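Exercise 7.
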Amino acid sequence: QVQLVESGGGLVQAGGSLRLSCAASGRTFTDYNMVWFRQGPGNEREFVAAVRWDGAPAYADSVKGRFTISRDNLKNTVYLIMNGLKPEDTAIYYCAAAPGRLQIGVRAVEYDYWGQGTQVTVSS
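Solution. The predicted structure, written as tokens, is:
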């Protein structure tokens, strides 16, 4: 089992920044690909960004150039730095993990472990 705990959400004005953190425990962190998904009101859960076990990142087109994902393998933590936030970024952000594979999954069903989510609200 992998336990994931997100933090760092909050209310921010459009154009502002937030940093989300996801602390992992329970298994060898470096064995896992880590990902952020989000789910806005009335929407399906959508892929935001991922970092592979070896540090390779991947981003959804909607956040490319504004969000940065990284991992600290010593702290067993993955981060999502969000700059230039827009009202459409408002959602619950979830951290998830899956055993490390060469190809990064972008579908929620590909991930085995999930955190409880953290709310991000961007006001216009």
